[in-house]
Amino acid sequence: MKLSIFDYPLPRNLIAHSPSQKRDHSRLMVVGEEIEHKTFSDIIDYLEKDDVLVVNEARVMSARIDGKKSTGGPIQVILLPDATEKTSEGWDCWCKIKGRNPRVGTHLIFNKELSGYVIEQTEDSFLVTFRKDPFVAARKIGKLPIPWYIKKQLESEERYQTVYSHEKKAKSLAAPTAGLHFTSGLLKRLEKKGVRIAKICLHISFDTFLPIKTENIFDHKMHSEEFEIDSKSAKLINSCKGRLFCVGTTSLRALESSCGKDCKVVAGKTSTRIYIHPQYRFRSKVYGLITNFHLPKSSLFVLVCGFAGTKKIHAAYKTAIDMKYRFYSFGDAMLLFRS
Prior knowledge:
The structure is a single chain. The chain is an alpha/beta fold. It contains 6 helices and 17 strands. The strands form 3 sheets. The protein has a 9-stranded mixed β-sheet with strand order 2-1-17-16-14-3-12-13-15. A hairpin with a 4-residue loop joins strand 6 (74-86) and strand 7. Helix 5 crosses helix 6 (310-322). The longest helix is centred in the C-terminal third of the chain and has 13 residues, at 310-322. The model has no long low-confidence stretch (mean pLDDT 94).
């Protein structure tokens, strides 16, 4: 299956550089037999009593630390979680570095207490030896790794966190962006209507957003991401008397990865490399997917094509472009139904 099938022309002016004024005031495209244009708060009209809404409560970690090279040039270092090792010299940590690529041996300075040296380089990452634990320092001086295309300063970094993100689950390098549209008030209204909320956790890596580079999409190798579904949420999902909705592709990937042949979700903590595409056979009973508009030629765009149908997704995206919907992390939302 050719990668060109999953390409589309996106005007750069439709990329959202800031969130909507209020979370649930973004636009919502409902893609069913016909396309409907709503406001996100109208999502309540599409969920019913006994439906279960699955959300990803992962929280974005303050993984970005700003500093400079000993020569004076500015740099941004993003710490990669679960990539740190304590050594006799300090802490070795794999990082992404934005700025002019430092060479092996370059001295990096962040403040009076934190500094390090580049000791190894790969195609897209750097191994840095820090004198102190960089993750401890990042809790004080770190910032969220906001996507590179967001140019405007956020009034608060909390706008890049979902309202249900869990403080103890701050290991993600990106937000589960479909969840950014929900407010606490909207969730309470859904629960009052009889909709049950199931919370799971999948820690998102930068690789989620990388474009597919292979000409045949089936030659693409998926990245690995950790996820956890506790027994309470698994029971809630498995006992669903209504319909099952996922908020975001991350929630969908976690459910599909944890499902057995009996379509039941198995509780536990593990990792997944699941690849959802138009020939993928779904195992879970997910009925609807709430998601944002994704990059062309990305595994996320391929995923929504696999969920709702390639022809239908292309038609929806063309309509979104014609009607100037906002795209990517701070963009507008879609409600899709499984084909």
